[in-house]
Amino acid sequence: MTNDKSRFTQHAIRNTFYRLLRLTAPYTWWIALAALLGAATIGSSIGLMATAAYIIASAALHPSVADLAVPIVGVRFFGIARGVFRYLERLVSHHVNFSLLARLRVWFYAAIEPLAPARLMSYRSGDLLTRIVSDIETLQNFYVRVIAPPVIALIIAIAMGLFLGGYAPALAPVVLTFMFLVGVVMPAAARRISQSANRRMVQARAELNVLLVDGIQGIADLIAFGREQAQAERVKSRSRELIHLQGRMAAITALHNASGNLLTHLAMWVVLLLAIPMVTTARLDGVYLSVLALATLASFEGVLALPLAFQYLESNLQAARRLFEIVDEKQTGRGRARTSLALSSAEGADEKSIRVHPRSSASYSITVENLSFRYAPEEPLALDHVSFELRAGESLAIVGPSGAGKTTFVNLLLRFWDDYEGYILLAGRDLRDYSPDEVCAQIGVVSQQTHLFNTTVRENLLLARPQAIEDEIVRAAQQAQIHDFICALPQGYDTLVGEQGLRLSGGERQRMAIARALLKDAPIIILDEPTANLDPLTERAVLRAISALTQQRTTLIITHRLVGLENVGEILVLCAGRVVERGTHAELLQTSGLYCRMWELQNAVLSDG
Amino acid sequence: MNLDKRLLHQLHSVHLFLALTILLGFLIGVLIVAQARTLSHIIARVFLGGASLGAVWSAMLGLLFIIVARALLSWGGEVAAFQVAARVKSDLRARVFEHLVALGPAYARGERTGELTNTAVEGIEALEAYFSQYLPQLVLAALMPLTILAFILPLDLLSAIVLLLTGPLIPLFMILIGKTADALTRRQWQSLSHMSAHFLDVLQGLTTLKIFGRSREQIETIAAISERFRATTLGVLRVAFLSAFALEMIATICTAIVAVEVGLRLLYGQMQFEQAFFILVLAPDFYLPLRLLGTRFHAGMAGVGAAQRVFEILSVTADRQLPTADRRRMAAVGGQPSAVVFNDVHYAYADGQRHALNGISFTIERGQHVALVGPTGAGKSTVANLLLRFVEPTRGEITCDGVPLRDWSPHAWRARVAWVPQNPYLFDETVAANIRLAYPDAPMDAVIRAAQLAHADEFIRTLPQGYDTRIGERGARLSGGQAQRLALARAFLKDAPLLILDEATSFLDVENEALIQDAIARLQQNCTALIITHRLSTIVRADHIVVLSNGRIVETGTHASLMQQRGLYHRLVAGDE
Fold this sequence. Notes:
The complex is a heterodimer of chains A (609) and B (577).
Chain A: H1 2-24, H2 28-59, H3 65-112, H4 126-139, H5 142-167, H6 171-217, H7 219-224, H8 228-280, H9 287-299, H10 301-304, H11 306-327, H12 329-332, H13 336-342, H14 345-356, E1 366-373, E2 383-390, E3 395-399, H15 406-413, E4 421-426, E5 429-430, H16 436-442, E6 443-447, H17 457-462, H18 470-479, H19 483-487, H20 506-520, E7 524-528, H21 536-550, E8 554-559, E9 570-575, E10 578-583, H22 585-591, H23 594-603
Helix pairs in contact in A: 1-11, 2-3, 2-5, 2-9, 4-11, 5-6, 5-9, 5-11, 6-8, 8-9, 14-16, 18-20, 20-21
Chain B: H1 5-9, H2 15-47, H3 57-103, H4 112-155, H5 157-166, H6 169-204, H7 206-211, H8 218-240, H9 242-267, H10 273-315, E1 340-348, E2 355-364, E3 369-373, H11 380-387, E4 395-400, E5 403-404, H12 410-414, E6 417-420, H13 431-435, H14 444-453, H15 457-462, H16 480-494, E7 498-502, H17 510-524, E8 528-532, H18 536-541, E9 544-549, E10 552-557, H19 559-565, H20 568-574
Parallel strand pairs in B: 3-8, 3-9, 6-7, 7-8
Antiparallel strand pairs in B: 1-2, 1-4, 4-5, 9-10
């Protein structure tokens, strides 16, 4: 069983490695060039030490200066060449790095775009997305840190083998054996020894992290209950434990480093041991004794980078495995992925024409019949036999406690998921008969979390309609009651927003979303908790802006805040995926059911004016 | 190069280890010289003296001994360097945490917590590189070349001068080119991180892009941005890499110069082979520590940056000096409810500019339940913080049963206060351990009783491992209402005479409402309570209402009397703005 499993993972690792290699394929020649330059850099050191030793040894025999002319030129050449080669190698390898980074990003985005957002639901949290970005950044070094060192080591080993073989064939296998020990056997052994300590260290670090996070974020609770000293003691003891483990790891690493040093010099010692009798028996010219000793020492630079390459290989494979896992969702992905992949560019043009004249088509109605849906086979029903009819130009609200299944509606209506039971009809036609892009073109969405891109206010608005003219933008902003705010910004519509620019408040973000939806001018509007997380005052202001948007459009409101629902045509109260009550606001208040209780709970508070 | 004084100050506790590192570094330097000497001796004897292996055998054994000793010493040096780093790290981490505790919740709150945690974990780890790599290398870079030079000088003045003149060029170039090149590189890395930010931005906004039908065109944008970055960056790096070029160049060219200069003198018989070869072998070792210093430089700088943040935290002083010892004996916990009096209490934030409270006076009678209401920013939470002694009044005093709060140590005072906050923090531990926060040694049946009183027992029993279920990142996630009920169970277990409810009922949903209201009513029996709330049903039940606005008390009374006054309270209830 275990054997099977390990064989499987071995296979998976090899698979991941090959897939990674394939991604680097377009740069094969650049990579070869960089590796050659890297080998030439180390080769120059070997050449420098060898020719320098040759000059000194020859000079000791007092030949004429002319005899030393060539080696002297050689020494100068190698002395300069090393710097030049290193410089070129760094340039070429960075070129490869950045090209690879660009390719990886495009590859990943192109693979993930059709899957979004259905397959990305579990990656929503910022942490995981950040992880993806840093994984890709790790992989950009795949060539420099993982592929190059073994290739360079191999070139150096072959060159040294040929060089030594030329003078004393017996020495070549000895030096190569030592290189193999330093470059392959030692790192593997060190890894084996440190594996368990390493695992425990990772765990101890995670536990310490938890203690610190708890200690800092829960500091008020700790202090209020008089437990701060106890927590400090736990931090101290866990920190000591971690450092103890790190000490063991450091000892192993130091042992590894020292043994690399030891083996390098031992190799030189063995070369002397074998070469001295050869000199004595005149099988080797004495001049070369010093040359061989110093060249051997210099050549080990070629294998000293290998242990690090092993470590990087591991982290690269892990990063790659995570990315491949996400991309491979394609095979199990449903709905969105299937249809979107089938889209040709001709359909893309189609979709554009729809977007330009959305209102020319007849107004849209939404009919839902016996709709049932679950996110995964093992999960409970998110929607359980829900039916309603929303006539063109009218409004309908779906309310209920959190987790009742309200947001699922949005996901289904936008065709992020397809595999539901029952029917959704858009303008009398099965939703699944439209392409996802056609559907999106008909629907404007204001959701509870509006994503603003790190660009200007204008660009963020133009997203909804790239060809909009200035007048249209301003009119949309005015209707969304954000125009005055934008004008007061230092650069007006050209102010940068988002992470690196201006941070907008919740109310301002929602008004931006409303302006976007106004610009898009779609016949159907979905409001998905548009005022969640806003304070009551802002909530009322945003609702006023929304009223401009919903006029004469088919409007579906999804909310747990029972505000502004007095004029909605029909309200569905959803609980655990089922419709438990339905009617107008006034009717529902009279039934004193769930809606009424939610209403009372929400309103029996002091206002915050 | 940047020997931060405060960082080195940390070394006080560890200078024995540092001395050991320096000693080992020096010994390694001596061994390098010895190895070069023995090697050149052996080669000279065999090459020019025609000695056989047997004739140089003792020298060969000596060489082997030196090689092994060198490896052992470098192992010892690395271990010693780690010990230095380890001591400093564990010391600093404990100090940072204790300091944060001393600063209290007024400092570590909101978005700051993430950054603080990061500093306490990663920042202090970054210091390790400074102590275990950069600092020893700095010592070696100073010691080794000098040791080598000391041996070459008596042998050959000219070579010694070449080394002496060129050696300092490496650090000099590192500083000269390094500064401009570093600035260039740093700017490029910044634009790299901007590019990453763009990519992250697109991934986060993918749903938005899809809804607007704009997601596919991003492929080209990403490609174009990456390509532009590659082109401009390579242009800049062409200059930045010159520093690496120059450093490699100095070290190798000087070795070449020494080889030629020594070789020519050897040729004219001005020098012995053994000496010449000795100098040649040592020349690369002379430059190596200086070059390594460059590669470790960044590790050192990251450590200094991290240290700056650590010391920034350590240099924040606590708001006010708090007494640590009790001047009075505390009444037994769980005794009679207390009466609390606020007497002209002021509180200003640390910057001294903004005033949270401007002289408030009110009394909570023994066993009374007082509701504190008012608009956001009125100072309600500051009142709770003062009563919990997270902060101390800038003026005025608070007394409990006639005794000023400052006569007790904060720790002893808090033992008689139970607190239920708006967002109780649940620790990454079991449910039982979370309830036991007040009494770590409480027997299990007491924990269960507290949970039952708080209406938490029902849902705890449905968790996979009941009371032993882990909560938090790695365990079960609880809803807001469930977390609130656990916080109430904590308060029940604590059974303190004074209760503070700080917006404990603001996030109620339909399912939890009745349960939590019921639990709170039970908790309030037999104790004095200060209740901060927006919820009308809770306010109406209070014995007395204090209305706060802009740090002052504007009205007090019962619900009925305040409604009659038609003041701020009436406006808040009616919902007018």
